[in-house]
Amino acid sequence: MDELLTTKEVRELLSVDRTTVYRMLKDGRLSGVKIGQQWRFPRHEIDLLLSGRTIPVAPATEHPLPILDVQPIQDVFAELAEVGAVTTDMDGQALTAISNSCAYCNMIRSTESGRQACSASWRELGQLTEQQTDFYNCHAGLSYARTHIDVTDAHPAMLVTGQFYADEPDWDEKKALARKTAVLHGLNEDEMVQAVTEIAVFTPYKRSEIGTWLSKTAAALERTIRERLELVRRLQTIAQMSSID
Asked: Which class for 154: exposed (0-12), middle (13-18), buried (19 or more C-beta within 10 A)?
């Protein structure tokens, strides 16, 4: 599970002040999601910084959906289904930290080019018109699927699940692709080959049920988001009424 850290936790881990954290956000050394007035930061990127790998990341972005409420549900789904999961906008930009991310994908996403490739794969999903859950192959050859989170027309989102093989793969082919992917992103070939052999392969039962699990989880996310948006709307109304002389 890739947890989200508060600004205070990031300050303590990196031994920097609040101003430095915001400066790192601005210049791209940190990425984060803004929930209301609070920033949250993916734990794996802080771990990379602590290991000495100061890798440029995408600028921090804001999204109107209450993503902080989405993350715990997404985390539980990913753990129980034994898959990776992320919520994105329709342009392929991650709105949450990736839940239950595998070693293979972690290595790829430790590079700027790898993160861009992942976003491009998610963007392709967002451009699909069909609503049913089908399996697709990402840039690294892994299977993944998605379903829409329909909350507001102005800000649609997707729940994407992946980091598995929907069918028994040709392992020689997957190892060869792992080496090519390693070269493309400047990673260790042997480590990538080892990691790709650890990718989960779906059983026939899981393959037939993943669409149902994905849809039910998306429905739970939609209910949670609608409830929070309604609560925010009511609080805003109260605040406006309280400010009337």
From this structure: exposed
